[in-house]
Amino acid sequence: MTLPAEQFAALSALGGVRHAFTTRVAGIEVQADKAEALRRLDKVHREVRVAYAVGERALATAEQVHGNGIGIVDTPLQRDECFARCDGLITNQPDVCLGIYVADCCAVYLVDQARAAIGLVHSGRKGTELRIVSNAIELMTEKFGSHASDLVVQLSPCIRPPHYEIDFAAEIVASCRDSGVHHVYDSGLCTACDLERYYSYRAEKGKTGRMMAMLAISDSSEL
């Protein structure tokens, strides 16, 4: 069976990280509110985590309130944990998998190979206005000694013009450049343009599923 997930070349080229971005799951009805849609998708999302060798790790997720709060995971987690009032997560723990859910907003992956630290951020229109990705970069610098110039940043598929009135993906890229990031990669894909592959909150009138972005430090090689 082909798993409903994809990867990004810029992250696959890096040693020491595991990542995936789930896609639309055929045969699962998701015309429901977010909590119910995620419940229906949970089994498949768990299968993807197992397939990408992070299924046994504690899953750290964020409440996702369209703010700029960042949860810091700097000690091992004993169980899955959702961080309240956060839209992003950073960690230096190899036994943790970071997870973010999106359906038009952008999942932004941040990898610091030099210091074995990673971040995963939910950035839609509001989060981008609040410069949440820059906030995550600043916290990685403060907590883990990261340098923006060492980071590799990858943007997931997200909604874009003409299906949305602003191009917040371009604003995220600009914000990363302003923060000193040299290596920024954008998938360039629009969720609302391809409903056979992705979920789109706007195109599907708020009743749809979610893609899951996942990122973890590899336990089998050095960053």
List keywords for this structure.
223 residues, alpha/beta, six-stranded mixed beta sheet, CNF1/YfiH-like putative cysteine hydrolases, 12 strands
In words, what does this structure look like?
With 223 residues, the chain is α/β, with parallel strands linked by helices. The protein has a single domain, classed as CNF1/YfiH-like putative cysteine hydrolases. 23% of the residues lie in helices and 27% in strands. The chain has helices spanning 9-12, 34-51, 125-129, 132-144, 168-178; strands at 5-6, 17-22, 58-62, 70-73, 81-83, 88-91, 96-102, 106-112, 117-123, 151-155, 183-186, 211-217. It has a 6-stranded mixed beta sheet, covered by helices on one side. A 6-stranded mixed beta sheet has the order 4-6-9-8-10-11. Helix 5 links the parallel strand 10 (151-155) and strand 11. The relative contact order is 0.22. The mean pLDDT is 96.
